[in-house]
Structure formats: structure tokens, C-alpha cells
Amino acid sequence: MTLPFDDEDLESRLVLIWGSPRSGSTWLLEMLCHPFRMDPDVDLGFRPPPEWDGDVLTLPVNEFQIAAHLAPGIYGDSTRGGTIEDEDGAILPRTLNRVTEYFSSYAFSTAYADVWRPEARRLTLVRLYAVIERARAAGFRIPEELPLLVIKEVNGSHGADLVMPLFPRSRMIFLVRDGRDVVDSLVDANSPSGWLAKRKWGRAGFDTAEERREFIEESSRHWTARMNVCSRAYDGHDPALRAKIRYEDLLADTAASLGELEGWLGLPSGPKRMESIARKHSFATVAQGGRGPGKLHRAASPGGWREGLEPAEQEIAREIMSDTLAQLGYEK
Question: Which of 32, 51, 316, 318 is deepest in the core (most CB within 10 A)?
Fold first, then answer.
């Protein structure tokens, strides 16, 4: 069946953000797609400011999760249930593909990759093109040249090395953050008053110190596994079409870091525009009741793990993360 769009052109308009949850990925997505704000309660998944009528240069796709379906994670009750180690000892996500790809009857097996890979690519492109079509139908001013589709896929990062090769013409943004701050944030989110606990997406606290240490060990392994897989995907992608950015650098000089990314993407990146976007999306603009301990917007303060994690907990994280932290430029 003929597609209603140029598939290679659309593929070249994709920008996929990979990394770890709790690394500022929604913040980055909204800045790259300013002035849109994420809103899962509307059909498009985002909304513009009231009476906005500008040209659409970027459209956001928040939590697309194609990787979660093409590379479903296998999680168990044990601490190590969600990760495995390869023959070199590298920690990787334990996905169905990684465990059973050798089994030829498996739907996404290596033996049948020549059959399912083109169809997985086609399905993804058709689904993403619908975002553009529906934005146009909703009255958004879409230029003749297709807008960029900026896709936040951090919660599917366990499948980055499977998905990125399907789209060699796309752009890849690898967003990294010190894993110890990620784990500290997850501990806070899973506290009795934490935002994950309130949404019933996580735990509601830890009954014992041992439970908390087990959670920190598991979360440290998951962060390490995600980063290792994202690094492999990054290393395998065209250097001209990939960018790695640290959350800490983006926070320290948002306008400059954002300007570099926008310029690389071919978007307007003048200093005044970047400073305006950075200011409108800064942590200070979050309402007082929406930020602080237990909130989705918690602190925006790198290095908080030194106070948030006990010395023994820091050692657990360090032991698991140290090699990957060093590879990403962080001190062990």
C-alpha cells in the first residue's frame, strides 16, 4: 500500500530523545517544542497557549513508547529481575528480544529481522504522520515542509539499540544525568507523599531500611542498563545526526545549551529567543505548590544525592554505576 507521505523525508524529520526518566526530558521536550505544553487529557497530547497562531516548526510526542512494544521489558520479583549482564559483564535491560532473539519462532527474532524490521518502521512512521495530520485538522498552521516531530522515549530507552537502527535518517538526542541524582529522585517520588505513590504508579514508601536499599540497588541497575543501551545506540548512529547533552549543562546555561541544540536541528536559535524560552520554562516558574519534596518538579539541584542518600546507599549506587558514570563523564 502506497504511503500518503514520503517515508524518507518523514524519517529525516524525527528527533528521538533517549536517556533515563527523571533527567529533565519533559522539560527539554517542551523547550524544543515551545510554546506547546504537554497535556495527556487532550487528543493531541499537547496544547498551545490560548489564541496562539504561529507557524508550527516542531510537534511534541510525549511517551511514545514504541520501544516498549518492540522490545518489552521482562521484570521479576528479585532485585536483578529487570536486568541481565552480557558476556563482558555490562549491565543491560532484560528485554524479551535480548533473552529470546536466538529463538527463530519469536516474532521479532534475528532470523526474521528482514521481515519485521521494515514493517515496524512503516507502522511507526504511519502512526507519527497521524500527529501531523491531526494537528493540521485541528487548525494548526503547518508549513509545506513537514515540522520536526520531537519524540520523548526515555521510558522506552531499554530498546534504544533496537529502535534507532530502524530510522538511520532520524536525529538522536542522548540526554544524560548523574544516575545517583536519578535514584535519589526516584526514592523521593516513591515516598508515602511522593508523586509516583499518589498516582499509584510506584511504591508508597519503604517499611524497612533493607527494602529501601534493595530499591536503590534495583534502580541503580536499571539506570546503568538504560545508559549502556543508549550509549550503544548512540555509538551506532550517524555522528552528524546525534547529540549528547548533560542535564547539568542544560540547567547551568539553559539558553546556550538549548541554542546549540536548536541550531543543530535547523530551528531558530537566536540568543533572545533562547533566553526567552529558557526563562519561561525555568524551575522558578513552577507554582510553589507544584515543586519541592515529593513533587514532580522537585529541586533542579545537581548533587542532591549527597544529602538524599545515606553513605551506605551511596556506596551501593557507586558500586553498580561507577563504570557507566565514568564513561559519561561523571566522577565516581
Answer: 32
